[in-house]
Amino acid sequence: MSLFFMLSFSVTFLQNTVFAPVLRIQPNPHVAAEAEKILSSSLEKIETFWLKENEQFLLGNTQPSMADLSLVCEIMQLEVLDEEDRNRILGPHKKVQQWIEDTKLATRPHFEEIHRLLFEVKANLQEQRLLGANTETESGL
After folding, report:
1. How far is CA 35 from CA 77, 104, 115, 135, in A?
2. Does the keyword Signal apply (predicted)?
């Protein structure tokens, strides 16, 4: 199974956790759990095989390749998760987190420009979560 295919499970996970409630469709917790397992396995593979010891980019490259950019962009989709879920998935993978940061730094300001819409969606979802939490608190739930 290719690494890109395995990381595509981030979309499946997001569809069944973040976007299903927003779109008012029934999430499938079993599919979300399976997607999270595959996603975690993919992140582990990146960390243990593709990111060489003390190197910034895949396979020891000194600058990001198309593979770095493609994979980091796929993982960036996890930004729309709430903080707890994002930390649960990415938290154990410190090398992956550093690699994402290194890729951001090496490609700025273009990285931020390309991901502007993603960051806007993240902010909107966070606002909706806060409004939902406040509504539940006010109604005594």
Report:
1. 14, 26, 23, 30
2. yes
Residue in the block written with tokens 């779109």: 23
Residues 129, 86 contacting (CB under 8 angstroms): no
| Whole-angstrom distance, CA of residue 91 vs CA of residue 110 | 26
- pLDDT over 90 at 135, yes or no: no
Domain range annotation of the chain: 3-138
Are 126 and 80 contacting, i.e. CB atoms less than 8 angstroms apart?
no
Question: What tokens were used for 66?
Answer: 């198309």
- Asked if the model's pLDDT at residue 140 lies above 70, the reply is no
For residue 45, which of 102, 86, 85, 6 has the smallest C-alpha distance?
6
Does the domain at 3-138 match CATH 3.30.70.100? Answer given as no
What's the angle, vertex CA 97, arms to CA 93 and CA 99, rounded to 5?
115
